């Protein structure tokens, strides 16, 4: 009988390299059967991370914040205060060795979480992440997804914008998409707390990842 998923919430911003090192160690422990699966909710200090498909031309202002090569899929993204990062470390060998289905499930998790705040998050063909239709042809990204899988154990995960400084995204072309903007729950006129967001994430997770 597998152990239940462990939830960890960090109250203070976590250094990016420290987080990656912790994930690497936990992936090995999950694979060895010595630790349960983990969802780690945290914030980072302001930084840019480059996925394996990142185009250097999309790093508009390389001096603005530290830039890290992440090893996850995807392109450039921003992390910083006011953004809830959820690192998801699951054993897909047990849950189903299908990366495409896993990413679809992460999208569904975000969509259901946003629905708790009466926000309609949507997928877009050819665009990774979750989007909000702002009307008049405008669409903004509210959540990013970037995953890595090693020996069928997942790590990295999602980043959902609660109330980050949206101007910080201007130092990159987020996920290589120039035609659309970025939004957050607060930018949409809602004012939940990070605790409210965490509660929504935790309550919707078992609906998608039983």
TrEMBL record:
Q: Which SUPFAM superfamilies match?
A: Class II aaRS and biotin synthetases
Query: What would be an example GO MF term here?
Result: ligase activity
**Functional pathway:** Protein modification; protein lipoylation via endogenous pathway; protein N(6)-(lipoyl)lysine from octanoyl-[acyl-carrier-protein]: step 1/2
What's in the keyword line of the UniProt record?
Acyltransferase, Cytoplasm, Ligase, Transferase
Q: Which domain of life is it from?
A: Bacteria
Q: Recorded E.C. number(s)?
A: 2.3.1.181
Q: Which residues bind substrate?
A: 72-79, 144-146, 157-159
Question: Pfam families per the record?
Answer: LplA-B_cat
Q: Which GO BP terms, alphabetically?
A: protein lipoylation
* Feature type site, description Lowers pKa of active site Cys: 141
Broad class of enzyme this protein falls into? transferase
Q: Where is the active site?
A: 175 (acyl-thioester intermediate)
Which interval of the chain is the signal sequence?
A: none
Segments forming domain BPL/LPL catalytic: 33-210
User: What is one term from the GO cellular component aspect held by the record?
Assistant: cytoplasm
Compartments it resides in: Cytoplasm
Write down the chemical reaction(s) this protein catalyses: octanoyl-[ACP] + L-lysyl-[protein] = N(6)-octanoyl-L-lysyl-[protein] + holo-[ACP] + H(+)
Q: Which InterPro entries match?
A: aa-tRNA-synth_II/BPL/LPL, BPL_LPL_catalytic, Octanoyltransferase, Octanoyltransferase_CS
The record's function comment reads:
Catalyzes the transfer of endogenously produced octanoic acid from octanoyl-acyl-carrier-protein onto the lipoyl domains of lipoate-dependent enzymes. Lipoyl-ACP can also act as a substrate although octanoyl-ACP is likely to be the physiological substrate.
Instruction: State the family it belongs to.
Output: Belongs to the LipB family.
What's the further remark here?
Answer: In the reaction, the free carboxyl group of octanoic acid is attached via an amide linkage to the epsilon-amino group of a specific lysine residue of lipoyl domains of lipoate-dependent enzymes.
What protein name applies here?
A: Octanoyltransferase
